[in-house]
Amino acid sequence: MKSPVVKRSIVVAGHKTSVSLEEAFWNGMKEISGLRNMTLSELVGEIDNNRQQGNLSSAIRLFVLDYFRSRATPAVPADVRPQQVDTRQQA
User: Is residue 45 in some structural domain?
Assistant: First the structure.
């Protein structure tokens, strides 16, 4: 069975390193870097410089998750949400 994690080499701040991520996260990174008009290496460098703790792969996953979560729209429009029902019995 093929592992869903893909290991790639990337240059970050002039140093070559390896990062292991699932393909979906690599695709997310490519999309974000394209929207920001920067290279994948530049984006990874930015993430690396801003991470507080943990390893680089985890920092990238959290960055991608946060990026897309912050841009997500509510799944259920307000006019479709269940209404609060008055359960008191009427006399």
Answer: yes
